[in-house]
């Protein structure tokens, strides 16, 4: 099994996987109780030091790696009986069916797993009869008429904190899906604009050209191309001409996102790319996102698998309303930062972005390393957004959880927008509806660290993020970086979003 590389040494234990050279802890035996009339409870004893118990299960279907389970949750505190327990009444398990599961436990500052576990339900298996008393409203059921005219009762709608397009949703329901059999422009809008420094000021124009975003073979492709490949844009015109984007979709009606006049050190954006979003069709608050994708490879490219604020409730400038990264890599084959840290396509990042300011931009981004480049294969990138936390996953493996109060951090670091965030909600500014965004960026003034070295020849990054001629110096170096664009496209298999 291919495994993820994390900063500590992996040691396989009889009852799990731990980091470190000394066995510090073993996951206690998992007790499975099958409930009547349906469902199950999985639990472990309340051993001191446990901080999180994550459980993932499927019925009659084995796990290949650490995929997301059909029945899954992160348990952050023990139940009333002192055990760490996952319980569901949604699973209808018949006798002789097998519950396949895996478990992840955080104990003190270390991580442990139990993999390839299973429990068969039979007459001898432990069962518990469940009774529920509630004073809340009874879940609504709806009646449907099938093709033969018979009326059936649909699955009850269990209330959830998830909202979709401003309306309440139902717990566990899939609220968005696209498997890209076609490019559905009712779901997705192609952005048409030149990005400003409100995010990264990447060195591209986002356009609606079919050669930059298209669907083939059940996959969405987003491909960056050079502007000078267009016969209308010669070398001279890139340095002295003008780019006017017809149908510009600037979110603030800013003319500088819709046209640029080249002069002196200012050139036209040298790369054309695409960025698609669901702003006009689908936006939600709280839920679980899954994106299966193959990321791009090539110097100074980065994929954009994002959640962006629908109404910019707390403001637009300097990312005042926040941004959530489902997955982010710097797609260079090899890239070493000035301090010797490897920051290329072997390092996955995800999490929350609160500002475009360079020193603070990465404060809530978490990292996971892989021994292969993330562009070498498809991976499933996940983000679980709850009212009190944001969890990040890859191929079902949870590599980080954010539980910080963002306002406290913002005020302490003199972020003007933090004064607007809701002090009564620990997730603010991530307490409003966000939409999906998929794209490919190139260059920019925020993502690639200055003085970094790329490739086996350790060539220096050709621009400085604070230089007024950054885009010009980047373009001057095109004969070097363009040769590395062997697989520059983002390739998306599917996008799914589920209510909590």
From TrEMBL:
The keyword Signal applies. Residues 120-153 are annotated as: Disordered. Residues 124-139 have a biased composition (Low complexity). One of its GO terms (molecular function) is carbohydrate binding. The keyword Signal applies. Keywords: Glycoprotein, Immunity, Innate immunity, Signal. Belongs to the insect beta-1,3-glucan binding protein family. This is Beta 1,3-glucan recognition protein. It comes from Armigeres subalbatus. The gene is GRP.
């Amino acid at each position: 099994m291919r495994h993820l590389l994390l900063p500590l040494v992996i040691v396989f234990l009889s009852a799990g996987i731990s980091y470190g050279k000394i066995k510090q802890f073993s996951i206690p035996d998992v007790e499975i109780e099958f409930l009547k009339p349906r469902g199950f409870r999985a639990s472990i004893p309340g051993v001191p030091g446990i901080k999180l118990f994550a459980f993932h299960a499927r019925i009659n279907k084995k796990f290949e790696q650490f995929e997301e389970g059909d029945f899954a949750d992160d348990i952050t505190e023990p139940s009333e009986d002192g055990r760490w327990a996952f319980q569901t009444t949604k699973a209808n398990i018949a006798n002789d069916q097998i519950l396949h599961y895996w478990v992840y436990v955080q104990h003190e500052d270390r991580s442990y797993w139990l993999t390839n576990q299973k429990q068969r339900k039979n007459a001898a298996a432990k069962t518990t009869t469940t009774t529920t008393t509630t004073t809340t409203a009874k879940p609504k059921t709806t009646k449907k008429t099938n093709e033969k005219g018979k009326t059936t009762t649909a699955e009850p709608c269990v209330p959830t904190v998830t909202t979709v397009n401003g309306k309440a949703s139902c717990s566990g329901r899939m609220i968005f899906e696209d498997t890209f059999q076609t490019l559905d422009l009712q779901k997705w809008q192609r952005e048409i604009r030149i990005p400003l420094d409100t995010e990264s000021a990447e060195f591209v124009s986002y356009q609606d050209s079919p050669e930059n975003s298209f669907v083939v073979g059940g996959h969405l492709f987003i491909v960056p191309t050079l502007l000078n490949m267009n016969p209308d844009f010669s070398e001279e015109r890139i340095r002295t001409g003008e780019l006017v984007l017809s149908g510009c979709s600037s979110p603030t009606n800013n003319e500088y996102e819709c046209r640029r006049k080249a002069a002196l050190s200012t050139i036209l954006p040298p790369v054309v790319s695409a960025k698609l979003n669901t702003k006009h069709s689908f936006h939600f608050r709280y839920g679980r996102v899954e994106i299966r994708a193959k990321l791009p490879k090539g110097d100074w490219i980065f994929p954009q698998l994002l959640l962006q604020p629908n109404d910019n409730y707390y403001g637009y400038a300097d990312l005042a309303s926040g941004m959530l990264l489902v997955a982010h890599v710097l797609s260079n084959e090899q890239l070493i930062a000035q301090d010797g840290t490897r920051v290329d396509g072997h390092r996955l990042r995800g999490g929350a972005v609160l500002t475009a300011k360079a020193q603070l931009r990465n404060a809530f981004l978490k990292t996971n390393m892989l021994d292969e480049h993330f562009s070498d294969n498809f991976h499933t990138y996940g983000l679980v957004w709850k009212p009190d936390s944001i969890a990040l996953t890859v191929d079902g493996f949870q590599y980080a959880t954010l539980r910080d109060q963002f306002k406290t951090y913002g005020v302490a670091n003199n972020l003007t927008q933090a004064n607007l965030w809701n002090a009564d909600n620990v997730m603010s500014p991530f307490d409003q509806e966000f939409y999906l965004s998929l794209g490919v960026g190139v260059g920019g003034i925020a993502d690639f660290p200055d003085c970094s070295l790329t490739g086996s020849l350790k060539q220096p990054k050709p621009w400085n993020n604070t230089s007024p001629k950054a885009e010009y110096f980047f373009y001057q170096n095109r004969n070097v970086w363009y040769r590395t664009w062997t697989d520059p496209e983002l390739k998306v298999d599917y996008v799914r979003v589920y209510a909590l």
